[in-house]
Amino acid sequence: MRQPVLLGLAGALALAVLPLVANPYLLFVGNQLAIFVILAVGLNLLVGYCGQLAFSHAALSGIGAYGTALLKVHLGLPFFLALPCGALLATAVGLAISYPALRLSGLYLSLATLAFAQFTLWVFMNWEAVTFGAGGFRVPAPSYPLIGAGLGTYYLSLALAVLLALAAASLVRSRLGRAMIAVRDGEVAAEALGINLLRTKAMAFGLSAFYAGVAGGLQALMLGYMAPESFDLFHMALMKAMIVVGGLGSIAGSVIGAGAVLFLLEGLRAFKGAQEIAFGSLLIAAVVFAPRGLAGALNRLPRWRESYLRRPARDAAP
Amino acid sequence: MLSGLTTGSIYALVALGIVLVYKATGTINFAHGDQLMIAGFLAYTLHVMLGLPYLVAMLGAVIGSFLLGALAERIGFRAVLRSNLINVVLATLGLSFVLKGVARLTWGGISDYLSFPPLVSPDPIMIGDLILLPQQLVVTAGALVVMGLFALFFRLTTIGRAMQATADNPKAARLVGIRVEHIHMLAFAVGAAVAGAGATLMAPLTLLYPDIGFTLFIKGFAAAVLGGLTSLPGALVGGLAIGIVEALAAGYIHSSFLEVSAFIAIMLTLVLRPRGLMGGPPPRRA
Amino acid sequence: MTPRLAVEKVGLAFGGVAALSGVSLTVAPGEIRGIIGPNGAGKTTLLNAICGIVPPTTGRVRLDGKDVTGLSPSAIAARGLRRTFQTSALFPGLTVLENVVTGLHTATRAGLLDCAFGSRRLREEEREAAARARRVLEFVGMAGFAERPAGALSFGQQRLVEIARALVSDPAVVLLDEPAVGLSLNRLADIDRLLRRIRDERGVTLLLIEHVIRLVMEVSDSITVLSSGTVIAEGTPDAVRQDPAVITAYLGTAVHA
């Protein structure tokens, strides 16, 4: 077993027994961490691995969250159905915008997705008949067999975070992951090897939207309250900070970055201005001083590598 | 319609800065709107809190944002120039949040909206059926003057021509002895200074709050994209067009459509005609 | 016999300026075809037109008799055509081995769920792909570098890995854009030998652009000479060497130099 996976599982285990000793606040922070991990891993697939600088992640997680919560509120769909539906809705919207958006390259993609994100927020705020507008709305608490709502959502988030992080770690080491990296590192060369650019980018976009949607749905369950500002540009910048601080193109880095950002966010909870300064400076500092993030430093450790193919030759021999 | 022209001329000033930076450096300064917001607060401090005359306050705001723009180039751009586009965008995004935070801590809390005193009498003038607000006329005229000065600067001064040359062909510019780094910094600084003038002009019409920067950035951005992102006249046309479209959308559909029309304009332009109305072909990555 | 690769009256214009006009050539299976011509003759443009990066405005390109004109580069690649680039185009974020395995993208089938959950199918496919990649790295003499990051190699080593990446899927045709550029003269014999081995041992048809005339003349079965976007001569190396049109257009300067 490789070290990042072992450490990750150890961390997950620690989080799994946390409720035995923790107070509700710590439980909330642990739950938020699991959700941030899902968000960061999903965003890193698109930005870090596939090299597509999109600004729609927070908005797509909002679509997952609103989808989940509104299916419950308006149609009475139980959460175990509403959550996957919300996630799939986010995926569908993500794929739908990816086709026009991905024909654009570089900055133009950023712009188009930024406009889409602001448009989505506007819909949340102004389509009052459905979304209840800027004031937000209450989401009924989910019910779980045997355990209470808070604990249930906590374990659900934790399980999904572990599952989705492992799936991403496996994906990026496979042929599809290499195709994403190839598209990032050289579009023309990737195409000349038979990699379909649009399909690969759309896959990354759809996957990242799915992760965002799941995270959004969990957020709705955890908070029991939905409001548009949870999915604004500040949250987009938070997610960007997670993957840049942790390391673009590293699943372990996404997990670490999610933790680091959550720590700062909670530490400065009361001061919005200070939060903004802290995250802005963090983004700048990470980009200037450690473009490969914390994971870049970790990668220099022996036995810390994220690849199937980098295992010793005897594994790979026929 | 006319109020659309007024806001449109402000958007055009924002777009002008964005286009200038894009032409000179090939990137977008995501902190552009927040520099404008800071300039607005600076003008407020000088004019309202210290009681200096309006034009002096404007000069102060312009100089302040010029310096801030140079600083932005140093932090958000030059340090990360050697890495990729993603990092440049993220660094300027980081700067944008730092500025917003600074404004929030310095000039008040999240719900604090500062109001700037009107420049001229707020009473409307009637010409036949036409209702004119002198305030709007002053702002529109001011914006046009700033744009005119800017065009003169670009055409007539050595620095302006050097910037033009660098934008057209950085290698050749380097060969004839232009320091490209200086031009980059100057583009950020001049872009910010124009935004500073815009902020001071706009302040009497609206309220000042820390999040206004991003709102204006998006509008200026829509204008720049509509105009083609590489064309200075395009920025002007795009700004006026966005302003008018907003006014019409708010007037004929619903007031809430005022905010969203800019986003829709960006999306439609990028999908249907990425070159914009007056720009060259969009840059393609190799 | 159907030619492996047929270029039929291909023309390509950029904004009214013709970069290629009426270029035709046929390459038989197992042939090494050299393409030479002065700078700006349209050699790389021709390669781009064949592999679909810049589709030709007129004319057709056929691979084993099948029309591939207008297909996307990835679709043409999937039909058995690979190329290398003038400047190294390895993916710096991947290791040497991973770069070569990426050449097998169209030969592998694992889907999204296989990849996300590390299914048995994925693991078998990856094992097999890695083994194939190691064999071809061995073939070009880079086996010892498999685990290195691609960006850490010297320029010449990167060229070899790029050739390995182009070969790994056993393509029918490989287009090589100046494989010897940047190599020292004493490595030329190695490249010469490698190109012959690619033809003889792997049965790959090669289309080769090269500035090092000595190499092209020695290794090519036949040569096509381009000048200003048209074919001015074609034939065996000896015939081309003596063609007066070629001497005036191109070799003239080299002979005097």
Q: What does this entry look like structurally?
A:
The complex is a heterotrimer of chains A (318), B (286) and C (257). Chain A is mainly α and 318 residues long. Chain A starts with a helix and ends with a helix. The relative contact order of chain A is 0.17. The longest helix of chain A has 27 residues. Chain B has 286 residues and is mainly α. In chain B, strand 2 and strand 3 form a beta hairpin. In chain B, 54% of the residues are buried. The C terminus of chain B is likely disordered. In chain C, 40% of the residues lie in helices and 23% in strands. Chain C is built from 10 helices and 10 strands. Chains in contact: A-B, A-C. At the A-C interface, helix 7, helix 8, helix 9, helix 10 and helix 15 of A face helix 2, helix 3, helix 4 and helix 5 of C.
Properties at a glance:
heterotrimer; A: 318 residues; mainly alpha; ABC transporter involved in vitamin B12 uptake, BtuC; 2 strands; 1% strand; globular; disordered C terminus; C: 257 residues; alpha/beta; Rossmann fold; 2 domains; 6-stranded mixed beta sheet; 4-stranded antiparallel beta sheet; 10 helices; 40% helix
Distance N terminus to C terminus of chain B?
43 Å
The tally of domains of chain A stands at 1
Radius of gyration of chain A: 19 Å
> What structural class is derived from the secondary structure elements of chain B?
mainly alpha
Main sheet specs of chain A: 2 strands, antiparallel
User: Would you identify the CATH architecture of chain B?
Assistant: Orthogonal Bundle
What characteristic shape of chain B results from the CA principal axes? Answer: globular
Assign the CATH class of chain B.
Answer: Mainly Alpha
Terminal CA distance of chain A reads 21 Å
Helix content class of chain B: over 70%
Greatest contact pair?
Answer: A-B, 46 and 49 residues
User: What fold name stands as the CATH topology of chain A?
Assistant: ABC transporter involved in vitamin B12 uptake, BtuC
Helix content of chain A: over 70%
Secondary structure category of chain A:
mainly alpha
Q: CATH topology of chain B, what is it called?
A: ABC transporter involved in vitamin B12 uptake, BtuC
Strand order of the largest sheet of chain A: 1-2
